Amino acid sequence: MTDSNPNASLTAPSIPGDALPPVEQHAQQYATVRNAHETELIEDYVELIGDLLAHRGEARAADIANRMAVSQATVSKMIRRLNELELVTSKPYRSLFLTEAGQKMAETSRARHDIVLHFLRALGVRDATARIDAEGMEHHVSDETLAIMQRFTEQQQNN
Amino acid sequence: MTDSNPNASLTAPSIPGDALPPVEQHAQQYATVRNAHETELIEDYVELIGDLLAHRGEARAADIANRMAVSQATVSKMIRRLNELELVTSKPYRSLFLTEAGQKMAETSRARHDIVLHFLRALGVRDATARIDAEGMEHHVSDETLAIMQRFTEQQQNN
DNA sequence: TAATATTGTTAGCCAAGGCTAAACTGTTTG
DNA sequence: CAAACAGTTTAGCCTTGGCTAACAATATTA
Fold this sequence. Notes:
- Two copies of one chain form a homodimer.
- In chain A, 66% of the residues lie in helices and 4% in strands.
- By secondary structure, the first copy, chain A, is mainly alpha-helical.
- Chain A has a single domain, classed as Winged helix-like DNA-binding domain superfamily/Winged helix DNA-binding domain (Arc Repressor Mutant, subunit A), CATH 1.10.10.10.
- In chain A, a hairpin with a 5-residue loop joins β1 and β2.
- In chain A, α1 (23-56) crosses α4 (100-123).
- The longest helix of chain A has 34 residues, at 23-56.
- Chains A and B meet through α1, α2, α4, α5 and α6 of A and α1, α2, α4, α5 and α6 of B.
- Chain B binds a DNA duplex through residues 34, 38, 41, 60-62, 70-81, 92-93.
């Protein structure tokens, strides 16, 4: 027990701007996050497949399973979903490829990811940490913030 | 082996530092994100309950449902889980309260959230956007990055 | 105080994203 | 060329976090 003060300002630095937001806005925040979660994994898969194709020339289920630290069965199931969403094409027992929509998504995700990663490094975060944080953050950064991050990174580099 | 890649450089800007990370590191990144996702929602609930208690004196299931834009049934089910995790105490049809562990989690989440939010504002992101982004980002920012964000915000303010 | 409105709970459904075990395919090699 | 191995898929299970509908408890008000 660190504080015997039952309820006054345990948490809040009580900056006036930090009251509860109006209900609608608050609800919007959570809804946006829930929404991001739905597409997040899909984007991660597509982005990784794009990277594997670019760097290795092929994307096999086993590679994905290894890189994501997930079972092959999980990957296989996910590939079925990506197929239904028409993001990848796959013949059984063969390497995957991205459809046009898939390539577009991969590029967007990759760009997003890179901006966040470079921003974190420019901020002074160590590389290993930056990579982990970027992986988690990338799906939750708005276009507005993304643009600001990019500008910041460029300014840092012109010093 | 199967080098069926006729037209390289479709996607990649081929910046040398941006090759695929080694498998173990890459796997670590994804695992960390998956892990964060497991605790994320729990933290959001606890944080919100803490905020409601601080600003309103009570936390009712209906308020949570409204603020999260989620059905009351969902909240009810979640509260059962929070109870099992010994993060909240609840008597049926009464306001919720946080256990000691719950309060600790609420404080930590709140602090984290505030640091990210203030950082984004200091960066120049508009308030409404900053709030949405902070809500999504907060669970994916390492302590290291958090410290850097805090320092950055303070420096901005001393201008 | 009885009727009504609000709030909370329960039951039962669904999809997503994990898993293991088992079956199947394709490749390598003795 | 057959056997062994590596890779892929399928089946079936589990947990989470949503939902709706029906019911129960409390609060409000006529």
